[in-house]
Each structure stands twice: as structure tokens, then as C-alpha cells.
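User: quick one, fold this
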Amino acid sequence: MSGHADEPVLSGFRLNLRIVSVVIFNFASYLTIGLPLAVLPGYVHDVMGFSAFWAGLAISLQYLATLLTRPHAGRYADLFGPKKIVVIGLCGCFLSGLSYLLAGLTTGWPLLSLALLCLGRVILGAGQSFAGTGATLWGVGVVGSLHIGRVISWNGIATYGAMALGAPLGVLCYQQIGLQGLAWTIMAVALLAILCALPRAAVKASKGKPLPFRAVLGRVWLYGMALALGSAGFGVIATFITLFYDAKGWDGAAFALTLFSCAFVGARLLFPNAIARLGGLNVSMLCFTVETLGLLLVGFAVDPWMAKAGTFLTGAGFSLIFPALGVVAVKAVPQQNQGSALATYTVFMDLSLGITGPLAGFVMAYAGIPVIYLAAAGLCAAGLLLAWRMKKRPEAHAPQAGSTPS
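Assistant:
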């Protein structure tokens, strides 16, 4: 992994180390998401005795809160500097643990207990959008915007790593020490991260008059649309691959998901310089092609190996779409708006994943499960065409004069 000639100080290992030293705070925030994820639906439904609707709502509230607060997280990071936003986000993660603890202590009053759980989910969603957006911008501030693609990539690795580690760890904690013990664990993770973040040097907030939200949206929405189209593939694999395997009468759905995750993380680790060398739009077109092929393989699978190969290719393809398009989107605005641009761009993925589940479920009910993978392949192909069009007509999406980040 070689660095760039104009930044020899930050080559290879030292560059990655600097990025990881900041991205670790996003890892901590996602660990507080992963820990209760596999526990809460069962707790709400089986232990508290509420319906499956309430169990689902308790989980979904977090995603809704993330979606609604993400643009604000970006704007505040631009105004006050990313370090403060990361600390505020981690405080939210801590307070979510406190809400779970209080919910565990008020089991005698089921409605109050459920309300406290739901409150914890909302606070966690807001906390994550602040910690995640802030950590990315803090990383960019530490290593320079030349390495923005690599920072976004490492943030993704931290996200998926924390979720993969958090879910089984949370189940183990719950089995051993109950909901209150799990809540204390979440609070301890968040508190440790806050104590590590506070002494770290802050990067200055960019000076200059920020663009209004509408102007930022105008500059990044096409990149966001392409991201949303690519995210549909991830959505249908993550949500429905288990049902797909069941319908086919095959075993090994969990292994298919593992293959997807390994390909996703592997691509980010193996090609850290791809975006800087080839350009964001070129990398995204390559990735859209790979993801489309993967989804077609799953859709047309007649043997388990075809489905596994398809999920692997889908993971590898989807892996670099977010950072590749993100680099171009962020550079389409002045430096003092990079936080807003990144957050606005990310909202498109949040929305896509929120819509994909219900929409694919509706299609599946009428046309069968394999069709949703073919439909997602069609959306990926549309993403490829959109990226190609942006590359062919860059003048329509280029930043205005003097707005390129330093």
C-alpha cells in the first residue's frame, strides 16, 4: 500500500494507523448498536409480551432517528468541528444504554418499560448519525482530503466489523447477565470511547460561509441517487437471502451472508488506493458491473454454489460504491460544506435500505423470491448508466469555480 508522492509522511501503514485512530470512535458507536440488536426484538416480544409489530418498531426507530438527524450532524460538524460532534454522538450512545437500564428496572410497568426502550432507540439513532458523520470528517481532517476515499472505506470496515462482533457478544451478555448487564456493557463501551476522544487534538471547523442545504442537495443528489440504486442489492441480500435459501430448500444461508461480508471488507482492504488512482466514477462503474453480475447469479441460481458466488460478487461490488461516489460528491462542494455533503449523500443509502425491505417484500409476494434479485440487478445496471452519464457530462456536476476542497 503505497502513499502519494506529495504526502510521503502519510504513506502506507502510518496513514492507515492515523485513520484507524479516529475511525475507532465510529467502531465504538456501532458496537453499541450491534450489542442490543439481536436481543431487543425477542425481549420486547417474548419477555415483555408485546406484539411482533412493537418488536419491529423498537428496532426501526433507531434507523428513522438516524435518517432524520444525519443532515443536521453534517451541518453541525461543519460549524463546530467534527470532534465535538463525535463526543456528542457517543454521549447519545451512553444515554441509550442508560435508557435500556431504566427499562430493565421498570419491568413491573410494561408500558413505561417499552417507552424507555423506544426512547433509547431514538437517542441511539441520533447518536450514531453524529458519531459516524463526525468520525469520517475528523479522519479527513487528520490525514487530508487527498485520502478521503480511504477514510470512508475504513469507516465502513469499522461499521460492519462492530456490527458483526456486537450481535453475538450482545446475545452472550444477555444470557449471562440479563438486560441490565447488557445496558451496563453498552454504557461502558460509550464511556470508554468518550474518555479516549476528549484528550485527542481537534481539527478546526472550516472557515467560510456554508452553502444552504438546498444548494448542497443540488450538488450531490445525482451521486446519492446512484448510491441508492446500488444499495438495493445490499438490502435484498441482507434481508431476504435466508428466505431465498428456505424457498429453494438449501442449507447455508448464514454462510452466504458471511461470504458477502468477507467480500465487502476484503475489497476495501485489498484496494485502498483504487479510488485515488482510477477516480471515483471509474471505480463506481466497475463496482456496479460486478454487483449486477452477482445479483443476476443469485436470481438465476439453480445450485447453492451459484447463489454463494453471487452473494460474494454482490458484496465485492457494493463494497467500494459508497466511498467511490462519496469522494466525488464531497468534492462537489466547498470545504466548509463537506460535512453537509457527506451526510446528505449518506441519507440516500438510509432511504434506499428503508424502502427496499417493504418494496421487495411486496414484489416477492406476487412474483416469487428470485425476482427481487433480478429487479435489484436492474437497479444496479441503472446505477451504472447514471455513473457513466455523470462521467460523460462532468460539466453538469462539476463544483463551481473556487469550491474545490484544498
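User: anything notable?
Assistant: The domain at 8-197 is CATH 1.20.1250.20 (Growth Hormone; Chain: A;).
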